[in-house]
Amino acid sequence: MATAQLTASSIKVPARSLTSFDGLRPSSVKFASVGGAPSQRSFRRLVVKAAAVVAPKYTSIKPLGDRVLVKIKTVEEKTDGGIFLPSAAQTKPQAGEVVAVGEGKTVGKAKLDISVKPGTQVIYSKYAGTELEFNGANHLILREDDVVGILETDEIKDLKPLNDRVFIKVAEAEETTAGGLLLTEASKEKPSIGMVIAVGPGPLDEEGNRKPLSIAPGNTVMYSKYAGNDFKGSDGTNYIALRASEVMAVLS
Asked: Which Pfam families would you find in this protein's record (predicted)?
């Protein structure tokens, strides 16, 4: 969902003109006065939805090629303690259920089927695919390669990575400096070291065969600092899923 901040110096909108925006709902577009002072006139907020809406006359969607259609898991609207979260604080979902798949793809002379099946619960890359609203629910259509892994339980620690993905338990950040000074939460450096929990079957070669990864569960590795997708387990443990190419070294 896109938002914009407009000031009175850059645009003037007569209050009566707002009635011409038929069908738009309250949104995050704001009108403020110059210098940040409170505006003398309040305006209704307007929303522009980023997701494409599939008209009700269409009753099914069939992905093509190596694409997958996923029904997105509902965003959490309140914390475990029952406190309702504003939209800005809600975690963008990265999980959902596969509802349809394409016919697969051809690599070399091999025809490969999609590795995930309808009904499978999956985790996908945060900014992958195209969002759409279908049958009153939010969906995402994305390539199979953007599916990070399969989740057979409600615990992220049980993620089974796909393709060339590696699933890592992140090492805890240092609590003190080398001189013994206690670090605040904000000053702790984001760790880029962790232990491999699970690995995917490997990437495809030019003949369509899987090439096993050189990284194995149990390895302690160093990875690129801003790579991959971050997750937090129910017990507060941090995990990251990334591509094998983003792992820089094995530590021993």
From this structure: Cpn10
**CA-wise closest residue to 52 among 121, 118, 140:** 140
Number of Cβ atoms within 10 Å of the Cβ of 225: 11
What is the Cβ-side half-sphere exposure of residue 228, based on CA atoms within 13 angstroms?
28
Hey, where are the domains in the chain?
59-151, 163-251
Please, are residues 33 and 41 in contact by the beta-carbon 8 Å criterion? no
CATH superfamily of the 59-151 domain: GroES chaperonin (2.30.33.40)
**The pTM is what?**
0.69
**189 — pLDDT class (breaks 50, 70, 90):** low
Among 43, 40, 13, 16, which residue's Cα sits nearest to residue 27?
43
Instruction: Determine which helix (DSSP H) or strand (DSSP E) holds 251, and give its type and residue range.
Output: strand 247-251
pLDDT digits (tens, 9 = 90+) for 98-134: 999 999 998 888 889 999 999 999 999 988 999 999 9
- Alpha carbons 127 and 6: distance in angstroms, whole number: 27
**Distance (Å, whole) CA 203 – CA 201:** 7
CB 67 within 8 A of CB 144: yes
Q: What homologous superfamily does CATH list for 163-251? A: GroES chaperonin (2.30.33.40)
Structure tokens at 182: 């206690």
Task: Tell me whether the CATH fold assigned to 59-151 matches the one assigned to 163-251.
Answer: yes
